[in-house]
# Entry
Amino acid sequence: MSKPKKSKSFNYHLDDVLKVREIKAQQQQEKLSLANQKLVEEKAKEEQLKALESESYDTLLGMMKDALPDMNTIQMRKYHLEALKKKVLDQESVRKTAEDEKESARLQLVQAMLDKRIIEKDKEKTHKKWQRLMNKENRKFLDEIAVTRFGSELPE
# Structure
């Protein structure tokens, strides 16, 4: 903890460190918001691909109900569905990566906020100590004035 010094106004010697930690916390907040935004985008892409895959399966089932299509059409649909399935799996891994990045950014933000809070608490405690020191000095000064005044009023 910092030690207070006598002065007319409170000057905290770690103000620069506090400013740096505030900036770092703000940057981590921005990183977290970007990670959140990326995660939302990746989830939307995944949902879109899943919807497309489901629609393709429904189309294939509809084709088979009406009339049995030729083998070439069925194979083309099969390859198309396999490609969609691969895209969905790839997108799921991209989404999981985005979730991991978001969690990492969140943990970094929490750590940055804790670091900032430590300096803020130290500043508060140092300010309170400074106030007590200044109050003590004021009382000393007033006591000296009272003693000198009382001493000058005594009859000799």
